[in-house]
Design the sequence.
């Protein structure tokens, strides 16, 4: 094995461990909760195509770049950006990139944890048989009741944050590696079974048509931005999460192959979720544009009416919570790694600090569904604002900067060496994507949204 030097914060035990952790980070609420509801809000097929293009042309090259930057320095994202920009004598402003990532991580986790709390609450609802023989309006009532109650939301959010903090305190390698190894494949199988159920609803064709037949007249500038933002969100890129995971990656692992595998799995999970959900939406006369409650208002109908649905419902929501956990730990790991490596804290203290800040921030999202639902900033509730600010702005801006840094600032021989494909065609394709295509695409989408283009 070449280059076995250890970073301060250790190394994955194998390529497979990294794949599990990075897939765990990528596959989460973004795939199962967010992708279907934003697809529903943005008119279906055309939105899905833009999203897929963004994953391929922007997401994958940037994910490779991020992994590579982290692995080169074997440090947390803040120090990675400092070390790498000083190495080539680049502008000091590059130092801020790591910081923006840490802040984005806090902001995302603050609402991610609230939604993961919904999923946790649904484990209990499934267990107590609340979905049994329920129709669409009863299921909607359950959901509306949950989000109207600040106390319940605070309880579940707190529980989820505690779980996240205790896993991260022990180190991302232990525990999560084992859990994800078993849970990810199970989640995948469950989704396939749900798709099979969706085929029996009588609206399968209509669901698939919605998902895969593009109608470009439904696409607005903001939909394109949302699709692009979601490509970043779902792959966990643009804020340092993949960078910090890359920093634990052994030197002899092929970054490109690994990234393709992760992105492919992530995309399949999202598409399967869509194929399970939209037929149920149409069969039950629901609105595709129902918003963030979409999966909570559709899947329980399936569980309540299918044979074995009780057990199936429990298992599904348990797995959704685990998928969310393996993502949430990557949202706070950059901050924790930085605190441990710079502030003389142990992992436990670092987790308590960063976890408490996120936990408090989460109250903004909780109240935006009930007592503060009338409070609008830039025409958005606090939850909507946080989501827009992070997924649609901070991640694409972070990703843009990572692309420019990896493509233009970093020395060519360094990226060639780190990606392990000197002067091959694949390297050249990556180079074109990272230098021109990805940054230009992000820039053009922004110009379009502000109305210049
Ligand atoms: N990708 C995860 C999901 O789809 C969420 C996530 C985890 C994330 N880490 C991230 C998003 C870092 C952006 C950046 O659910």
Sequence:
């Amino acid at each position: 094995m070449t280059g076995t030097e250890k970073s301060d914060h250790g190394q994955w035990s194998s390529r497979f461990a990294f794949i599990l952790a990075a897939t765990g980070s990528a596959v989460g609420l973004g795939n199962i909760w967010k992708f279907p509801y934003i697809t529903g809000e943005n008119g279906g097929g055309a939105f899905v195509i833009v999203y897929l293009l963004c994953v391929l042309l922007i997401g994958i090259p940037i994910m490779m770049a991020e992994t590579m930057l982290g692995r080169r320095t074997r440090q947390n994202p803040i120090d990675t950006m400092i070390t790498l920009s000083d190495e080539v004598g680049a502008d000091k402003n590059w130092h801020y990139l790591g910081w923006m990532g840490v802040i984005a991580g806090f902001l995302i986790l603050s609402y991610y944890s609230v939604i993961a709390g919904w999923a946790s609450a649904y484990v209990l609802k499934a267990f107590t048989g609340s979905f049994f023989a329920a129709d669409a309006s009863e299921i909607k009532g359950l959901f509306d009741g949950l989000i109207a109650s600040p106390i319940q939301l605070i309880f579940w959010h707190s529980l989820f944050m505690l779980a996240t903090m205790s896993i991260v305190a022990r180190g991302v390698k232990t525990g999560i590696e084992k859990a994800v190894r078993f849970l990810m494949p199970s989640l995948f199988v469950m989704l396939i079974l749900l798709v099979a159920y969706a085929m029996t609803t009588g609206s399968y064709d209509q669901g698939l048509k919605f998902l895969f037949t593009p109608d470009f007249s439904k696409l607005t500038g903001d939909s394109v931005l949302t699709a692009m933002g979601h490509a970043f969100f779902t792959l966990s890129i643009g804020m340092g999460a993949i960078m910090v995971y890359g920093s634990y990656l052994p030197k002899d692992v092929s970054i490109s192959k690994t990234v393709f595998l992760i992105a492919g799995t992530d995309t399949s999970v999202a598409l399967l979720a869509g194929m399970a959900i939209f037929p149920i939406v149409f069969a039950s006369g629901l609105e595709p544009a129902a918003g963030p409650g979409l999966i909570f208002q559709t899947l329980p109908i399936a569980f309540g009416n299918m044979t074995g649905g009780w057990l199936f419902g429990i298992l599904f929501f348990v797995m959704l919570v685990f998928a969310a956990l393996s993502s949430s730990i990557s949202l706070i790991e950059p901050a924790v790694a930085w605190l441990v490596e710079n502030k003389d804290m142990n992992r436990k203290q670092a987790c308590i600090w960063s976890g408490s800040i996120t936990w408090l921030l989460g109250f903004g999202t909780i109240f935006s569904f009930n007592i503060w639902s009338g409070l609008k900033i830039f025409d958005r509730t606090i939850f909507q604002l946080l989501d827009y600010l992070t997924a649609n702005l901070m991640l694409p801006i972070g990703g843009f900067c990572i692309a420019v840094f990896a493509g233009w600032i970093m020395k060519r021989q360094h990226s060639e060496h780190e990606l392990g494909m000197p002067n091959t065609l694949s390297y050249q394709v990556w180079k074109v994507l990272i230098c021109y295509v990805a940054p230009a695409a992000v820039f053009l989408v922004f110009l379009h949204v502000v109305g210049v283009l």
In short: The chain has a mean pLDDT of 90.
